[in-house]
Amino acid sequence: xxxxxxxxxxxxxxxxxxxxxxxxxxxxxxxxxxxxxxxxxxxxxxxxxxxxxxxxxxxxxxxxxxxxxxxxxxxxxxxxxxxxxxxxxxxxxxxxxxxxxxxxxxxxxxxxxxxxxxxxxxxxxxxxxxxxxxxxxxxxxxxxxxxxxxxxxxxxxxxxxxxxxxxxxxxxxxxxxxxxxxxxxxxxxxxxxxxxxxxxxxxxxxxxxxxxxxxxxxxxxxxxxxxxxxxxxxxxxxxxxxxxxxxxxxxxxxxxxxxxxxxxxxxxxxxxxxxxxxxxxxxxxxxxxxxxxxxxxxxxxxxxxxxxxxxxxxxxxxxxxxxxxxxxxxxxxxxxxxxxxxxxxxxxxxxxxxxxxxxxxxxxxxxxxxx
Length: 371
What we know:
Elements: H1 7-12, H2 64-69, E1 72-73, E2 89-91, E3 103-109, E4 112-117, H3 118-121, E5 126-131, E6 134-141, E7 146-151, E8 157-164, E9 167-172, E10 178-180, E11 202-203, E12 206-209, H4 210-216, E13 221-223, E14 239-241, E15 244-246, E16 270-276, E17 279-284, H5 285-291, E18 293-298, E19 301-308, E20 313-318, E21 325-328, E22 331-334, E23 339-340, E24 349-350, E25 352-356, H6 357-363, E26 368-370
């Protein structure tokens, strides 16, 4: 595989590395909230961090100190890629620069529906927002193709400037602890050498297209280009998703050396991954699109993945009874003939999200794969 140019070169081409000082005066906000779908329990909260964490930590590929040793500079310094801390939103009709096939990251919590365009987050990676009254951080790592949401309490999250397995390492501005995005778990770093090992309370962010999201949620709010930092969100420094090319091409190489390599899939082929303290599972998104219902094993527990066609996404459920499910015209039908929305089967749903295969495999080397 060909090696890609450095990340600094990518970002310097569009001026992202120098955005941090473009505008001051944006301030964080916040108050506590609770998660709604997780791979682990969110009932027990840690007292060591001033924001929600889970009672059990998510699986790690190595000890926290070893993960720190694998961290590398991504090019820009701490906050050199500036988070959005005071986001503005517009209506779907007023949204600018979005073509039907452009990726957006959708959040539906309580009564709020919000879309975060990939074209904006590619230059900020973190949006500290409030959704349905809960302070959250909607995050995106372009190098691993992962969009994830976390509850942030009274603090905000920023971009540390470091990467592990090509994945964004966030830091919280309350304790300056490092948090690799996909792992969602604290590790030591230079600004907090010995944090307790905890996992963030996370929620589902749906990777879909503007056309699909806006048709499903015509009343959605859309993150405005008026971020105060940059005025050109038409140029992605890494490539394009509409059509998919450049760094995002499935066969192209990761920018930095990944934690491991596995040739069963092209490096950036998209999988829908789910993990719990018991293990991890990945379903090839293309195969799920074709077959609609896939069965698998997650740490010894049977799971089922189902396709949701409206947003072109998938959901993963624990299914210890191995219930028979069929896909019929956008609905999931169980053995009794009852129909279900793919997003709400009467089973325990495990948080799942899109990721590039190399990233998922690097973080979860024991993952099962169905692709």
